[in-house]
Automatic annotation (TrEMBL):
It comes from Pseudomonas nitroreducens. SUPFAM superfamilies: TPR-like. Residues 351-378 form the LapB rubredoxin metal binding domain. The lineage of its organism: Bacteria, Pseudomonadati, Pseudomonadota, Gammaproteobacteria, Pseudomonadales. InterPro entries: Rubredoxin_2, TPR-like_helical_dom_sf. Keywords: Metal-binding. This is LapB rubredoxin metal binding domain-containing protein. Pfam families: Zn_ribbon_LapB. It comes from the Bacteria. GO terms for molecular function: metal ion binding.
Length: 383
């Protein structure tokens, strides 16, 4: 009974909408279209609050036309978002049979059906539909289909194909430059694992060409330069990081530790120069304090303590306590509390996504939650 009442309610709402639409014909065209969009948006908000049975009844009762297509697709998409992929596919397949010969309507329905297949893991069926849609003369639809193919390649880690598709899209969608640069980095990583360092470096150059803000490419390039002991190039790359991505400067520390970078005078001099700056990350001061000779180490400890006093943060406190280590009396109150603070520091999130708020200890170049590229940044947690 509730579903019958809900269905009657929706048909009444549609009848009122039709009548208001007829009235709006006498209004200026721009005002009429704005009013129509507002009514459609309001109706979609109502749809989201009703049961699956009422939604399906509404979809079956509505005539398929350019004016009602958005509502039909919205009903199917609601089922997809609710996780009922089978019903979403059923609705969109029915729409295909009712769309007639209108090529534009058919293309839009086929695109949503392909998205249903992707959500259901039926990637082969989705790719067949998308291949056909990319040949459409309707440019917006063909671009949407290309983008869905790109996402499938990203999901399957087919980076060469993802680069090809993203390169075709980036001119009309500049926001894809971050994704494209990361595809080059992913492929470079694969080349590095096979020992093809030359191809790896070429791909990293391409990554920086398409996205000058690609920090990942700089860090991977620095890793290569440290591996082949090219101190001059490594110093230049560190300088680029300090200039273009100061927030990520602390990420060079694990690379320097892995390749024993401080054993090389040019890199040591470069780090000392960075440490003189006001915004140097505590991790760099801690690295110098741990690796300098005893005479110089105390100076860097003092610099680290001054940095923490000027800009108090959990990161700075944690780094300082790890540097001083066993210097204090273990039985004193400070000696007992230090390991607790270090333990707390090691459990705190180090990175946060600027788009969805995901936080974690590891640096992910693609957010595990919202899947945005280059969205995670180091967190500075003030005391």
């Amino acid at each position: 009974m509730p579903s019958v009442i809900a269905t009657l309610f929706f048909f009444c709402a549609l009848a009122i909408g039709w009548w208001m639409g007829r009235r709006s014909l006498s209004r200026p065209r721009e005002a009429s279209e704005t009013h129509l969009r507002s009514r459609v948006h309001s109706m979609h908000n109502l749809l989201e609050r009703h049961s699956d049975d009422a939604l399906e009844s509404l979809s079956q009762g509505l005539v398929v036309s350019p004016e009602t297509l958005e509502s039909h697709l919205h009903v199917g998409n609601l089922f997809r978002r609710r996780g009922d992929i089978e019903k979403a596919i059923h609705i969109h397949q029915e729409l295909l049979g009712r769309a007639g010969e209108d090529g534009s309507l058919v293309a839009q329905v086929r695109l949503e059906l392909a998205r249903d297949y992707i959500a259901g893991g039926l990637l082969g069926s989705a790719e067949e539909l998308l291949d056909e849609l990319t040949q459409q003369r309707d440019e917006p639809i063909s671009l949407e289909a290309l983008d869905e193919q790109r996402l499938i390649c990203e999901r399957e880690k087919n980076w060469s194909r993802a680069i090809e598709l993203a390169s075709r899209l980036v001119a009309s969608r500049p926001e894809l430059s971050a994704a494209l640069a990361n595809y080059y980095c992913e492929l470079a990583q694969e080349k590095g694992r096979t020992g093809d360092r030359s191809a790896m470096q070429e791909l990293l150059r391409e990554a920086r060409r398409v996205d000058k803000r690609c920090v990942r490419a700089l860090l991977m390039r620095l890793d290569c330069e440290l591996w082949r002991k090219d101190q001059v190039a490594a110093v230049a790359t560190v300088g680029e990081l300090a200039s273009d991505a100061k927030a990520f400067l602390g990420e060079i520390v694990p690379l320097l530790r892995r390749h024993d970078g401080l054993a090389r005078p040019e890199l040591l001099a470069c780090l000392r120069g960075l440490a003189a700056g006001e915004e140097v990350p505590p991790a760099i001061l801690a690295l110098l304090a741990q690796n300098e000779l005893p005479a110089g180490a105390s100076g860097w400890r003092e610099s680290l303590l001054e940095r923490v006093e000027r800009h108090p943060s959990w990161q700075g406190v944690g780094e300082y306590l790890e540097v001083v280590g066993n210097d204090g009396e273990k039985d004193s109150a400070a000696g007992k509390i230090a390991p607790i603070i270090i333990g707390l520091y090691k459990t705190m999130p180090r990175y946060r996504c600027g788009k969805c708020g995901f936080a974690g200890r590891e640096l992910h170049w693609q957010c595990p939650s919202c899947h945005a590229w280059n969205a995670l940044r180091p967190v500075i947690s003030p005391l």
